[in-house]
């Protein structure tokens, strides 16, 4: 039950799309936080959103965010099946309609030598296809990087950002 509650809290905080505006084109930004750094595409602007280590948004509502929680001993049990069923349930409850989640990819490649998973999925909400990629890293604490593509145009930029993730923590 505790594992499901942690996953529910994570999903509620990280996966609800937020549409914000006010961005301007600029060079990629390197973001440094509590034990990590990575680059953000230039079209994303930092927004202060409670509950997130950092949150960046583009004009089209796409976003990138980082959430940090205490290390979870059940981290290794996370699977595509668990994430898919939990996401479908949370999204359906959040939006009061049945939402099917489509798995795009799941892998367990380490990030900077730390245990990690990467899960890419998509779903349709009010006729719009939304694609999200979640990178969970167990690096002393549980770091979750969430990339939400509302327009279907950010795949290459997000991949570059994901590849730039680096940890400075021990």
Which short descriptors sum up this protein?
170 residues, alpha+beta, Protein Transport Mog1p, Chain A, 7-stranded antiparallel β-sheet, 3-stranded antiparallel β-sheet, 3 helices, 10 strands, 22% helix, globular, disordered N terminus
Task: Describe this entry's structure for a reader.
By secondary structure, the chain is an alpha+beta fold. The chain has a single domain, classed as Protein Transport Mog1p, Chain A (3-Layer(aba) Sandwich), CATH 3.40.1000. The chain has helices at residues 2-14, 80-95, 155-163; strands at 29-32, 36-40, 45-46, 54-57, 63-70, 102-107, 116-125, 128-139, 141-149, 166-167. β3 (45-46) and β4 form a beta hairpin. α1 (2-14) crosses α2. The model is unreliable at 1-25 (pLDDT under 50).
User: What order do the helices and strands follow?
Assistant: HEEEEEHEEEEHE
End-to-end separation: 30 Å
Helix content: 10-25%
- For the residues shown, what is the average pLDDT? 86
Kindly report the name of the CATH homologous superfamily: Mog1/PsbP, alpha/beta/alpha sandwich
